[in-house]
Specification:
Pfam family, one: Tyr-DNA_phospho
Family: Belongs to the tyrosyl-DNA phosphodiesterase family.
Helix content: 10-25%
Distance between the termini: 22 Å
Organism: Aegilops tauschii subsp. strangulata
Shape: globular
Largest sheet: 10 strands, mixed
GO biological process, one term: DNA repair
Main location: nucleus
Number of domains: 1
CATH class: Alpha Beta
Length: 505
Amino acid sequence: ESFAEESTSVTEVVSSLDSAGSSERNKERTHSVGPLKDVLPLTFRLMRVQGLPSWTNTSTVTIPDVIQGEVLLAVLSNYMVDMDWLLTACPSLRKVPHVLVLHGEDGASLERLKKTKPANWILHKPPLPISFGTHHSKAMLLVYPQGIRVVVHTANLIHVDWNNKSQGLWTQDFPWKKANDTSTNIGFENDLVDYLRALKWPEFRVNLPVAGDVNINAAFFRKFDYSSSTVRLIGSVPGYHVGPNMKKWGHMKLRSVLEECVFEKQFCKSPLIYQFSSLGSLDEKWMSEFACSLSAGKADDGSQLGIGKPLIVWPTVEDVRCSIEGYAAGSCIPSPQKNVEKDFLRKYWSRWKADHVGRCRAMPHIKTFTRYNGQNIAWFLLTSSNLSKAAWGALQKNNTQLMIRSYELGVLFLPKTLQSVPQFSCTDKSRSNLDKLALGKNIKTKLVTLCWKGDEEKDPSAEVVRLPVPYQVPPQLYGPEDVPWSWDRRYTKKDVYGSVWPRHG
């Protein structure tokens, strides 16, 4: 995570970088950086990056796009929170009567947070019972008169994360349950409530115009109808998880969800991508345990998909030096040499190449894990989890216990059979009564990258969902000159601001 002081602000340097070529080429690409509005819940969006050519920011998202309308209650979950920035970037938050901030700050940053928060806001740092854990999940729960907006994303609540980085965000709105609806068999709902329960915030009572006096605890979030959810939640919470709990969290949760899924035969033995912004201290045993989880699932002929070969997408020193922030971007890719330069990792390193979304120079803070074949995607996870045992958990005691240090949250996109496309919105008046766009028949979703060249007309029974995967797929392996970024080395070749690294000393 970023341990940086505020990174160099982006200046006109940017306009000379990432220029997009001819205007014809721009026109062709204007729709290509993100999904269209009517399929939004089925996919995710990239965040806007300031100073890039306009085509790179079509269909992207900013914080006021998400936090808007008549919010009655907001739960903001994050690691780093800059209150001054947040209230400036999103002034409508000042009007929200009840705000709970779940954070990971301590020391001087926490003191500053307490001083700068509005009086009616509640701060809570979830318990971290195991050393070296963090509260790392990036999410928002926004309660409206019409329902709830659930947001899962990858950005800290700080300026550089929402302006200078490659980031991702998923959101979907859900209506309040009807009074006689007591169903609790929705996977998304149970996963959300289990996760929230682990945060142990002090319950508080509020009066909501739609629900009267209610206690705001984990169970409160059962009051919404998540039956149209388009993703599965994959969370991590700290602890030594045993028995049935072992399959609830971390990579074992991902394994258990994938085991229930059936994929096209083309994904048998197909490769994996791990893309993230901080690398833990890893060993080959754990890498194979992790690959085993991410390779779970059956093909449609009943056979197991089998272990996929992973590649790691990670910026090179040259990528960081030439980025829109220069070397300062490297403070948010905080991995030391001892973790990065292990021999066994060498075969995995692949380039951060993001030309098709104009983000080669916007360093990744997004974290994604996926299984693919060409431009076809078996499944895709957008998450706060970096590649570390702390985030994903490590099996112990002869595989009977999963030890996790941190809180993390991600959303898993899977092929689905849809009767309808969810259209419900808490803020768009024209869509507040329109629960779903009925399709009239069952349609299977097919996940692809933005660069997929297939024919959508060819198979009318499939809804093609284009995921704005921000890097080249298949990834390009490092060349002989490429050096993976590590933040505790000295770099004397000057960046775009004329700086060397480290900047001090």
